[in-house]
Amino acid sequence: MPPIFRPQSFNLEALNEMPFQFDTAGARISRAMNEEGADSMATAGSATKSRYRMTTLSNLIQSGQDINDIFGQIDKLVDSFPSHPCPGNDMGEDEKWRRLMLELPSCVYCLMHGENEIAGYWSCFPVKDRLYEEGLRGVNINKSIDIEDIQDFIFPGEYSCYFVDFFVYKHHRGFSTNPLIYASFKDFIKVAAKKGYFIEKIFAHTSSYDSINLCSNAGFSLVVDHIDHRMVDKSGDVVPTKIYEINFRYSENPKILSLDKNLHELYRKHFFHTLAGGGNIASEFNVSIVDLIANGESNALEFKQTLRWDTREGRVNKGLEDVVIKTVAAFANSPEGGTLLIGVTDAGEAVGLDHDFGALGDVDRDRFELHLRNLFGEAFGQSFTSAKLRVSFPQVGEIEICQIDVRPADHAVVVTVKDKNGMKSEKLYVRSGNSSPEMPLSEVQAFLTQRFPSQPRP
After folding, report:
1. Which residue positions in the chain have pLDDT lower than 50?
2. Stated pTM of the model
């Protein structure tokens, strides 16, 4: 059970003025106090000055520190904190948590006092969607979580994480160690982003006041009380522990981004290219439609000059609508989703929707949107169209275009197509760069296993 105490507060704005140094692996943070970059000498609850630093479990192992000593110290640290004796507080076997830490040692950060003493630690694991959704509802996942629930940082993309809580000895808490802990959390997010692993959302099980304080200062929102876990509050009453969440895709400029310009820029650029329905990411990060177009087509952004008007032949070509359907399906099958802009040429010139309005019988914008939704409803079903697609009409200067934001699908999206003889078949389309090719039959099974692991197989 995590610690029961009231944390000392710290100023996050002042924290960002600190000249932190990050190594290339992002595994260690120290505060430079002079030109030689010596580690800071920090005071924590006493007049005795001591050296503190944050480092990962991976770094400790690589430095040669005995793994049994590391886990022995962590066990002693955790056991030193009181827990409320109720069945729901079962965290599962210690051996299981050790396996999880060894599986992802770069996701475990330790507050070191001196060279080898562990004064505190926290962990944050990337997890699969099923576990994330259960945890977000306040279900006790601590007892059941295991290796197969981990979604390792392997492929660049977006990940969901579980912040398990953190522990710090009382006599090591203070105005020097609190900023180091917060900075290490920022570092964890930033280093992952630099490598292409963007943490889209994190849920935290906060059963200590320190973790609640961290979530509040980072910009998390309270979601629900935990169903089983309990803690003792400041009045001595037994209360449910809390579940907090931060969603970088849909939160409006959360504190942990707004207070770090470099981290904010990393996420701004990423979501700039991966607009995915529902949340207006462009406005959240002050990205205009002009800037979006200027960045050009990508894995999550595509331009189409028209929906159904063939500009080369000067006639209606319904085959162009099939291309739009395939693009939307490919975005839905992508872990990040994507955005399709109609009324923009491949070169990034906004030409508007007049040709398509005319091709549909001189309709207006509302009739055009209705046609689009009918088209998508026939291809994907009304449920998918309502839940996963968002249609809007931004303006580039005085030119109106159509923006279709596509959220990632929960199950594989297939498209029924006809060949030249009218024979129907189902095709699976995916994104590859700025195109949407058909997935070869020989690769479909492997793709489905990786992208939709919970989907039943035929």
Report:
1. 1-49, 88-90, 274-286
2. 0.54
User: pLDDT for 286-303, tens place per residue?
Assistant: 457 887 888 788 888 899
| DSSP per-residue codes, 66-82 | -HHHHHHHHHHHHHTS-
pLDDT of residue 21: 31
Closest to 121 measured CA to CA, from 97, 149, 85, 89: 97
Q: Tell me: domain 12-270, CATH 3.40.630.30, correct?
A: yes
Q: Domain-by-domain residue ranges, the chain?
A: 12-270, 278-451
Q: Strand ranges (DSSP E) for 19-116? A: 20-22, 28-31, 41-43, 49-56, 108-113
Q: How many residues does the chain have?
A: 458
Minimal CA–CA distance to 40: which of 25, 21, 27, 57? 21
CATH node for 278-451: 3.30.950.30
- pLDDT of 458 reads 55
The alpha carbon of 48 is separated from its chain's Cα centroid by a whole number of angstroms, namely: 40
In whole angstroms, what is the distance from residue 156 CA to residue 273 CA? 14
Residues in a beta bridge with 55 = 28, 110
Strands 117-127 and 399-400: unpaired
